[in-house]
Amino acid sequence: MFAVIRTGNKQYKVTEGDVIEVEKLDVAAGSMISLDEVLAVVDGDKTVLGSPLLSGAKVTAEVLEQMRTPKIIVFKKKRRQNYRRKNGHRQHLTVLRIKNIKASA
Questions:
Q1: What is the structure's pLDDT at 37?
Q2: From CA 82, how far away is CA 54, in angstroms rounded?
Q3: Residue 9 domain-assigned?
Q4: What DSSP string describes 6-75?
Q5: If pLDDT is split at 50, 70 and 90, which confidence band does 81 have?
Q6: More confident call, 104 vs 54
């Protein structure tokens, strides 16, 4: 059984027990969270699709940690113009473990 969920304007295919990294959610580590934006649930040969969301379906996940990605360097340069800009970026992420997938009743 798997589900397709949407969080942070991205879609994720998840099964029970998966550990995924999503864009930062404002919840404390160790707490449980319910993801209500479920787009599809597939259980064997039975497929339920939403238009766009499934009503009554939800995915329960445990928040493992809040983390940041390794730093990436953004460097812009225009040759012969004495123009150089260097910038760094670290994205904030939330690590989730999928506990339960509940299809609509």
A1: 95
A2: 55
A3: yes
A4: EETTEEEEEETT-EEEEE--S--TT-EEEE--EEEEEETTEEEE-SSS-TT-EEEEEEEEEEEPPPEEEE
A5: very high
A6: 54
Has residue 7 been placed in a domain? yes
Provide the domain limits for residue 40.
Answer: 2-66+97-102
Write out the two tokens for 66: 């809040």
Name the pTM for this structure. Answer: 0.85
Q: How confident is the model at residue 101 (pLDDT cuts 50, 70, 90)?
A: very high
Comparing CA positions, the residue from 60, 8, 67, 3 lying closest to residue 32 is: 60
